[in-house]
Design brief:
334 residues; D-Maltodextrin-Binding Protein, domain 2; six-stranded mixed sheet; 48% helix
């Protein structure tokens, strides 16, 4: 009896001690995590841009980084990691520690790539949405030699000669390619795709008349429109843009179609909610400040402040949308 009692007593003491230690540790975790969030950031933040320096993504990242450096009182270091259509930089960013010190800038291609490539990560489950930065339109533009002055005339022309009209894109599987395929599907017409290695040569050939049609960006479109080297028929956003209020939306022209070009920030899965909120608040303030908002307007873009939840919903919605477009158009990439 004595030995049995002693064993039970010892086990009770040990068990009780372990439970007490676990309870102490559990109580301590909360304040420590909260303290870390309050102290964040305490060192430089890395913002990965999964595209080469000098492009539109890079410009937005650097403008945002300057403002965040001021508001968060820590340097925001831009790291360009181009390659594999943006997949390489995104993968590096999502494999980082979820401490808020490594973030990644993404655009529509993030929602497109799951339909085109086998990714080593889940684009929804393996990330923490931080917030959207900006949105921009495409303009449905045609060379002036094309006898169409509005969307319905272009549709009628395409129906008369299916496949005769050509359209340029920045490359197979790019957002301008998929957005145009979505328009063709919605309008019930066909054109011949002419892919280029980048938007600049695609635009050059559209302006020169080598190609008939292109979804162009605001910064490149409006100057050519002013000197009548491009005929801009409509804008892809659900509302008219402030930089060209006389250009109707495609919806206004009777086609239930809209596409928004967007840019946003994500981090790896597991970033604490308090840090996520601090970053989201800082981004929302930065993109609506005079300096950033004006910079966006000059390039035909608009500030797009919002919640992490709304940003996640946008990503999920577009993954489904572009998956359908890729499947229906039979798009493949090497």
């Amino acid at each position: 009896m004595t030995k049995q009692f002693s064993f039970k007593a010892i086990r009770s003491v040990l068990t009780g001690g372990l439970l007490s230690m676990a309870m102490i540790a559990a109580v301590a975790v909360g304040p420590v995590s909260a303290a870390h969030a309050d102290e964040y950031p305490s060192k430089p933040i890395k913002l990965i841009v999964p595209f080469a320096a000098g492009g539109g993504n890079d410009g937005i990242a650097r403008s945002l980084g300057q403002l965040l450096s001021t508001s968060l009182k820590q340097p925001v270091v831009i790291e360009n990691r181009p390659g594999a259509g943006g997949k390489l930089g995104v993968e590096i960013g999502l494999r980082a520690e979820p401490d808020g010190y490594t973030l990644t800038l993404i655009s529509n291609s993030y929602s497109v790539n799951p339909s085109l490539y086998k990714l080593p990560f889940d684009p929804v489950q393996d990330m923490t949405p931080i917030g959207m930065i900006a949105k921009a339109p495409f303009f449905l533009s045609v060379n002036p030699s094309v006898p169409a002055n509005n969307v319905q005339e272009l549709i009628a022309l395409a129906k008369q000669k299916p496949g005769d009209l050509t359209y340029a894109s920045s490359g197979t599987g790019g957002i301008s390619h998929l957005a145009m395929e979505l328009f063709l599907k919605t309008a019930g017409i066909s054109m011949t795709h002419v892919p280029y290695k980048g938007s600049a040569p695609a635009l050059t050939d559209t302006v020169s008349g080598q190609v008939n049609v292109m979804l162009t960006t605001a910064g490149s479109t409006l100057p050519y429109r002013e000197d009548k080297r491009l005929n801009v028929l409509a804008v892809t956003l659900p509302e008219r843009v402030s930089s060209a209020t006389d250009i109707p939306t495609i919806k206004e022209e009777g086609v239930p179609y809209e596409v928004t070009v967007w840019y946003g920030i994500i981090g790896p899965k597991g970033i604490p909610q308090a840090i996520q909120k601090k970053l989201n608040d800082a981004i929302n303030v930065a993109v609506t400040q005079g300096e950033m908002a004006e910079r966006l307007r000059t390039t035909g873009e608009e500030s797009a402040p919002g919640s992490p939840e709304a940003f996640r919903e946008q990503i999920v919605k577009e993954i489904g949308l572009w998956s359908d477009v890729v499947r229906d158009a039979g798009i493949t990439v090497n």
